[in-house]
Amino acid sequence: MDATKTSELVRTVPHALVAAAATGRGITFVDRDLNETPLRYDDLADGAARVASKLVDLGCKPGDRVCILGPTTKNLVTVLFGTWWAGAVPVVLSLPRRQSDVDALIAEVGARTDKVGARVLAVADLFLDLTPPPDVDATVVSIETLAQDAPPTAPVPSAEEDLAYLQFTSGTTASSRAVALTHGHLIANMTNAGAMANVTSDRDVFVSWLPLFHDMGLIGMLVGSVLFRTDLVLIPTEEFLGRPGVWVDAMSRYGGTITASPNFGYGLAARDLRGKPRALDLGAWRIAANGAEPIDIETCERFASEAGTYGFNANAMCPMFGLAEGTLAVTLASPDQPVFVEHVDRTALETEGVARPAVGERAKALVACGRPIPGHDVAIKARDGRDLPDGHVGEICFRGPSVMLGYWNDPEATAEALRDGWLHTGDLGYIGDHGLVVCGRRKDMIILGGRNLYPEDYEFHAEHVPGVRKGNVIAFALPEVERMVVVAETTANADDAPDIAREALEHLRRTLPRGPEEVVLVTPGTLPKTTSGKRQRSVCRELYATGRLVAVATAQGRP
Asked: How far is the CA of 430 from the CAs of 353, 457, 539, in angstroms?
């Protein structure tokens, strides 16, 4: 079965699971050592029917929200699909990034459970003693208990226009909101993205380590595998972070053809391949979707070089752009062409908002993220709503059957995002020769001295200074005093840190047209990030402004 025919056969997630159950395929959960726990789709459907029976006994009715908190396990996936089977609406809650975040997790679970008015809060035994706060109204139940044997029930009838999922946004520039998506949104987005990627059930095998509280992991990998009736190899995120090499090991062992990751995942995999040569066969790998954060061409090329030793085709790297408000995928590069990079004049981009070709020191490299998925449109709009011509930077806007209903119980934010039939993403970009090019977030823009500066530039170049932790730099402006600050994590000791801070400051001044006024080094784990690992620049700016960043070393100078 190919992706182009899927939408003709299914309209809802339970319907997709019923169809997948007839194939004999399913999910294989693996740990970092590739120990397997199988779950065929027919067994998942049977387990979902039994979970649904228990949810009904708990008073759960069609449309009720069920919050789910726990690591990626067979039981959690069964409870997730059992919620859909009962006609209810799952809300997968994010896990803490580190042990010190547990107190924040407890508060967040309570706030998000209340925000969506959940009927049930299903919590893995691992967290059951920690959650929820005492004032949560939802019925609290163990995921493991829900997944235990019970009489099955028939799926509650649902329609494509019914609410299917609430996805919390990452909250990088504003407080996290719950995106309301219907079954139709999920099916339309995956079907059209799958058609663009030429997904077929008899050829493709999905492999994923992405968390299920993130849209790329839950919708793109898990729901996508069920919808397209392909096998899925599922690696719990903590297993990947404990040993990143398990990802490429799984692609090799199971003949993986399709996977997805933010850019940093490919960096970790490249480093693992370089440091630990071994027998692998990556020749079947045909799509390596790269999205959810800025895409660095150096990382793409480094991964392609290391993985190419084992048969990986560099053309399989597929930059993409997407967001929760658009269900997931907005644009996708072709899986059979090279990664296209546009080298544009940095000054023209920053002062005029125009992408002009350039070479040498004046050039800034930007990765093209491809064309819109079928049945959808992308436009670049000025602040006054005008459509901008190709090559001009403006707000990326999106329309089509994947665009959300709105933000749950937040009409003001919904009205701001959905205007004149378009989803206004808040991201900046332009249309180039090879499709959409993403420049950054409008709210994160550093505007100083008449220039629109992108924090990603400063973060990227600072990470190339020895002693600075890659992926752990945040740049922001203090516009009221015309000042830019770069905060970076380091593992260096107190004696070496001042030299690293000075080198970072000088490197940014040499490399970029305008340097920062200050570089601040902090200890690992200091920088605020979302649960999906995105940098929270506004939060970091607030910590700096209120004196709550404890510096290991600082360096100051003129821009």
From this structure: 9, 17, 27
Q: How confident is the model at residue 5 (pLDDT cuts 50, 70, 90)?
A: low
Structure tokens at 498: 């001042």
Q: How far apart are CA 51 and CA 5, in angstroms?
A: 30
H-helix or E-strand containing 178? strand 178-182
Q: What is the DSSP string of 366-396?
A: EEB-BEEPTT-EEEEE-TTSPBPPTTB-EEE
What is the rounded CA–CA span in Å between residue 218 and residue 183?
A: 14
Q: Say how far apart CA 94 and CA 388 lie, in whole Å.
A: 37
The predicted-structure confidence for 26-52, as pLDDT tens digits, reads as follows 999 999 999 999 999 999 999 999 999
Per-residue pLDDT at 6 exceeds 80? no
Contacts of 490 (CB under 8 A, 6+ apart): 467, 468, 469, 497, 500, 521, 522, 523, 524, 552
Nearest 5°: CA angle at 548, between 543 and 553?
100
Which segment of 122-131, 245-254, 290-299, 456-465 scores lowest on mean pLDDT? Answer: 122-131
pTM for this model (two decimals) = 0.88
Query: What's the rounded Cα separation, in Å, for the pair 172 and 293?
Result: 11
- Note the pLDDT tens digit of each residue in 188-210: 999 999 999 999 999 999 999 99
**Residue 513 DSSP code:** S
Q: Return the structure tokens found at 334.
A: 């072709």
Beta-strand relationship, 446-448 and 451-453: antiparallel
Note whether 266 and 282 are within 8 A (CB): no
Domains in the chain: boundaries:
3-189, 446-556
Structure token digits, residue 140: 């609290």
What is the reported pLDDT for 135? 66
- Closest of 158, 123, 124 to residue 139, by C-alpha: 123
Class of residue 243 by CB neighbours under 10 A (exposed 0-12, middle 13-18, buried 19+): middle
| Cis status of the peptide bond prior to 319, with omega within 30 of 0 | no
Say if residue 271's pLDDT is above 50: yes
State residue 82's pLDDT score: 98
Mean per-residue pLDDT, 255-269: 95
8: confidence class by pLDDT, cuts 50, 70, 90: low
CB contact set of 501 (below 8 Å; sequence gap of 6+): 519, 520, 521, 553, 554, 555
Looking at the domain covering 3-189, what would its CATH class be? alpha beta
- Residue 7, pLDDT > 70, answer no
Query: pLDDT value at position 174?
Result: 46
Fold of the CATH domain 446-556: GMP Synthetase; Chain A, domain 3 (3.30.300)
The letter for the amino acid at 117 is G
* CA–CA separation, 475 and 487 (whole Å): 6
Q: Does residue 99 have a pLDDT over 60?
A: no
Q: Could you tell me how many helices (H) and strands (E) the chain has, helices first?
A: 19, 29
Q: Report the C-alpha gap between 199 and 7 in whole angstroms.
A: 13
Burial of residue 392, with CB atoms counted within 10 A of its CB: 0-12 exposed, 13-18 middle, 19 or more buried: middle
Q: Rounded to a whole number, what is the distance in angstroms from the first to the last CA of the chain?
A: 58
